[in-house]
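Ligand: alpha-L-arabinofuranose. Inputs:
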Amino acid sequence: MPRTHLVLDAAFTVGPVRRRLFGGFVEHLGRHVYDGIHEPTHETADEHGFRKDVVELVKELGVSAIRYPGGNFVSGYKWEDGVGPVEQRPRRLDLAWHSTETNEVGLHEFQHWLDQVGSELMLAVNLGTRGTQEAIELLEYANIDAGTALSEYRRSNGRQEPFAIKMWCLGNEMDGPWQLGHKNADDYGKLAAMTAKAMRQIQPDLELVACGSSGASMPTFGEWERTVLEHTYDDVDYISAHAYYEEDDDLPSFLASGANMDHFIKTVTTAADHVQAQKKSDKRIDISFDEWNVWSIKKWEAKAKTFTLDEWPVAPRLLEDVYTVADAVVVGGLLISLLRHADRVASASLAQLVNVIGPIMTEPGGPAWRQTTFFPFSVTSRLAQGTSLQVKASGDTVDGGKHGEVPVVDSAATVTEDGKAAVFLVNRHPSEPTTVTIDLAGIGATGDVHAEGVWDDDLHAVNDL
Ligand code: AHR
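Predicted complex:
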């Protein structure tokens, strides 16, 4: 049986675990908003039409900041469509997902939902089909107290106090040719810098995220980050990173996906630090890993080819991956990678939350349930507290496919000021159990030890309806 030995020492720290590391993402996409979190005819719906059973599951999942309203959707979105009397809101074509957007849920309704789940809003602005002017108008609407046209408009729409949104994404995946308003790095960098400067003239203490690459396999990866940051370094706080992993008939590589995320994070921080050195700046740019998950993208792309172009459905079933035990192991491994880089990853968003590549599924008029991937997220969000520790690991390795030989057990650890330690482990062996010993002397741990596990003899077991 493969063996692993871990040594923890409170003196060897990575950095504080910021709560935003356990963020989520809600996009107007498929049945995420409509027939997902929002279903006015459901027996558990509140007075605004949000399902309370889903609210309870999102709370149990333990998500901090939630990115909204997209995603690809935001690059064609007019935020004004989603405010004002619901019955007067326009129905629009959503070009990103070839659907009809009814606009029944917009900023006010979504904030109501966030208040129920206890999460912070991380708002994305449209820098695809729109620009600086619309972004500052949205900021004025959302964050100015009173006395201007747009703040008074918000008040007349029923919200007296500002939304006080701190964290803003300057567009979405602008490096992707599929993105509405796709740009090259220079054009996007200039627009993002201009928009960030204008937004800071309204509110200097905003936290702003520039778009990084939409994946490590993008041909512009690395160079995109460098160019965008050369334009925006002084104006933004974070650069984004997006990564999705799929099994695609290669289980060893899939189980070792965390190694790819480690590499991704190192490359982005290297690009950011290179620009810092170039600019002789004291400021450090950290990562907002604001889309990450397991996603069967190839299956989705094959299905997308069968869509008929004259159909624009409302809330179609899109990207409804049913997750396996192997997927849960990989999600656990990705969380471990994020914790291991807690010094440079300031924020991360599991993409997404409900129905759309989500840990939570719902049926209209029916139940809501936890997918396999729910469990590693909820347990890590609950137990990862305090400071992330460097883990000294030795032991056996396993074939990680295209990632080479990797330690059979991947691990991260955290410790709180009052000495509560948590160790997170994934077994990346496709068939064998492993033995792990942990030396806790260096963190002075005494008292109770408690273990929680997620496993199944069948790697492809699922939780379905
Ligand atoms: O999460 C699904 C999609 O993946 C998002 O809309 C987009 O940003 C990414 O390509």
